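Tokens for Amylosucrase. Go.
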Amino acid sequence: MLKSPLAQRLRPNFDDDRDADTFLLRLERYGADLVESLENVYGDRTNALLDELFEVMIHAFHARPDDLKRLDEARLLRPDWLQQPDMIGYVAYADRFAGNLKGVAQKVDYLQGLGVKYLHLMPLLNPRPGENDGGYAVQDYRAVRSDLGSMDDLSLLARDLREKGISLVLDLVLNHVALEHAWAVKARAGEAKYRDYFHIFPDRAAPDSFERTLPEIFPDFAPGNFTWNEEVQGWVWTTFNAYQWDLNWANPDVFREFLEIILYLANRGVEVFRLDAIAFIWKRLGTDCQNQPEVHHLTRALRSCLRIVAPAVAFKAEAIVAPGDLINYLGARDHHGKVSDMAYHNSLMVQLWSSLASRDTRLFEEALKAFPPKPTNTTWGLYVRCHDDIGWAISDEDAARAGLNGHTHRHFLSDFYSGEFPGSFARGLVFQFNPDTGDRRISGSAASLAGLEAADTPEKEVDAIQRLLLLHAITLGFGGVPLLYMGDELALLNDYSFQQTPDHAADNRWVHRPQMNWVTAGAVQVNQEFPAGRVNAGLRHLIHVRQRMPHLHASIESQVVPSPDRRVLILKRSHPLGTMLQVYNFSEDTVPLPGHALREHLGHTADERLSGFQYDLTPAELTLPPYGRWWLTTP
């Protein structure tokens, strides 16, 4: 559709025929997706928008550094780079990890030693001063927080990481900007153009209509979804906080602005964009204003532009939604494999902690079976913990199939992980209690939630360590990009000092956002006897084994195998090199497993990759140790 006339129209923008051929060949490949998605969103405004987008894209293509252009070509030859078994992720706040961006550069060897090839630095683009939702209220997308360094420092860090095989990942907040962002400042100054960048209503009629079906994200400290602003004399849509103004993506100018921002940062060396709050960007009356079809068209259009200008760059969707909705962020039907390259598997994380508390994997099995197959060219982001709270995203339908009451089980999990449940090993904090729904989310570090903080005997300490290694084994073995949250490799406990910092005191998620402990990081290298050392050594071993297992390429999906024991989860991966069966015990009990449950998938013998032993599967019964984990493959 675009081939001949568009090529003739755009070729004069290139001095070099090879550059022209490169750009136009990519446009020929991805242009139809771009146009189709834009037309679905913007209708008859699409042609005018395309003229503006091509100007932006050609400028960014010419400005792209040579080493990044080479990376573009390499990624086109290996489009599965995010799916490789040696792709290990690490997530950190730059200041809490190493002080600033130059400090991070000095710690790259540490990351390499862990096997990291993907570094996600938490929000570092310039936020509003004071309270800023942990950096997610961005004031300037083209500047770095001054205490962290400069945009040039970011470029240098990206180059250093790239030279050592590590991809830089940054957050891109799409749903909103800070009240102090230039667009919002101009809107408050009365500029009609920028007022239309936001959702502003003169009275409560429309907001009240929307509120009937909208949930509250932060009911404790930001109730409602609209805020009155005196300067604009209107109600502004503010889903998250009063100082975060939701953007009007129905305005094509907003799309163009964000394409410029993305390409600017891509040319600075960002290789993966975490699309923050992507589910919320399209508003429709009578819905919860999440997961609307336009969201996926807009993402596919942005991705198409990136594939033309900077195909080394990937998108990761931060969409914490139900499985039936989540698959659309990777692409379903006409969008199959054309939206985001990666999405968080939040359900896996929730089920890890659920099964650990209940010692029961039936709900885990049901939740995984509810997921439709993902596109084979996409991957999951998998994690034990992250910077955010844990919301008990457990559907009543999944719970019912597992013989549970969803409301009761969610209540149990909040009690358990806040330490209120009798016999609980966990030490967490309740976050955002909603009395209307009974929803209580949980803050806490992986080590504290797994029992290490509360362990007062050597036996309890061993159990906590084994729980942590069990959780990491599953995220490393499921098939995707395992994302290690800073400090989890050192089993860092809850940091209660957040209460002494005024900007953090009201938000207990900072309890699991500690400062990196470099003393402990050094100690674990020479002493593996204390808990952090044992967790670190065990995790490094898991990573080492994973990196050498082609069975864990993310194009292959893990499938649930019905378990003969409710305490045990069994996952199967069918790879051309042979079957892989993963067996995990979620209890402190020694569990007998019937040999036939494994033989029917693996035959009479299997290699257990984590121990290096070959297992005889012919006995009538095999014994799985407490919190045991087996990675079994056919010989």
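The first strand starts at residue 89 and ends at 92.
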